[in-house]
Design a protein that fits this description.
globular, seven-stranded parallel sheet, Rossmann fold, 7 helices, alpha/beta, 222 residues
């Protein structure tokens, strides 16, 4: 950690989790600077936040080769609707954040926080879940001093884009949540703010090794 404070980099910083995380981390005095990877300029409220405008195709040219941060937050994720091409989907969800991770790790980054998804499994026959599992495995192999993988269920929160299918699913899950008990608790919807609070809590602790949290466990991280 820098003597001037903690430095962090967030990829996916305009999404449901990433943008809230950027703005909340900036409120903490212990964070001296936060790099937000964005595709276009965003009106963040804090001067602590430095925006790096790039995308999955040019990140290696735009992100400084000597950039050094203490913490890396991976909040990026596409959707089938936005990215129907599977190769492009892999590029956005796997190759892009993994390439940034390798650069940061080489430059001394010790802590990584990865948003995955419930059911992630590299052996799954479902493309989405299989890719999420592959992403987890690739990040584990990088051997960060501490890696925290969060697997939330359906995220509920105010998005900048209109996802009718997710809104309907979220509405139905809110009705079903009280009945999803026992082994089905993990399938209860989860507020994006709960995931953000869990990330902040984990980032404040020193807990070496690789850790995976189910959606139900995320709600209890303090």
């Amino acid at each position: 950690m820098s003597q001037k404070g903690i430095t962090a980099l967030i990829i996916g910083s305009t999404g449901l989790i990433g943008q809230e995380l950027c703005e909340k981390l900036a409120l903490y005095k212990k964070y001296s600077s936060i790099y937000a990877i964005v595709r276009k300029q965003v009106n963040f409220q804090s001067r602590k936040i430095t925006q790096i405008i790039c995308d999955n195709n040019n990140y290696a040219e735009v992100i400084p080769a000597n950039i050094q941060v203490d913490q890396y937050f991976v909040c990026i994720g596409s959707t089938k609707k936005k990215t129907p091409n599977k190769e492009q989907y892999r590029l956005i969800d796997l190759d892009y954040p993994l390439g940034v991770a390798k650069l940061l790790k080489k430059n001394g980054c010790s802590s990584c926080y990865l948003i995955s998804a419930i059911g992630a499994n590299s052996n799954s026959k479902n493309f989405y879940l299989s890719l999420k599992g592959e992403i987890e495995n690739c990040f584990i192999k990088l051997d960060f001093e501490q890696l925290h993988i969060l697997r939330p269920s359906l995220l509920v929160g105010k998005r900048n884009e209109n996802r009718i299918g997710e809104k309907l699913s979220a509405f139905l899950l809110r009705l079903l949540n009280p009945f999803l008990l026992g082994k089905f608790r993990n399938y209860q919807s989860i507020q994006s703010s709960q995931v953000v609070e869990a990330l902040i809590a984990l980032a404040s602790k020193k807990n070496s090794g690789n850790h995976i949290y189910s959606s139900d466990q995320i709600k209890n991280i303090k």
